[in-house]
Amino acid sequence: MKGILLLYVLLLLLFLNVMPAVSSSPVPNGDKLVHLLEFSALGILGWRWWAYLLLLPFLLESLQLFVPGRTFSFVDMGTNLIGFALGVLLGWWYEGRNEGAPLLNEG
Question: For 51-67, what is each residue's pLDDT tens digit?
Fold first, then answer.
């Protein structure tokens, strides 16, 4: 079940990041909060595969160079990475709080 949810989040992130020009948020820098939340969700669901998913915050922001009406932003990329890192840590903590789950899968 969690794997299917992770796949949906991956598809949603891909769709949101390659969709042409999105409306701006009425909240100043509100898009940064959206970046933080969406990549936190990715980190929480995919914390076991964090090493494989780590390139996504870079890749998805870089794809915006090729999408009409979208712009590349290092600040957005940084927010993506912070959200992903927080999500990985939260997922690792939540899953392992009773089991002592290792952050690195050794097997």
Answer: 999 999 999 999 988 98
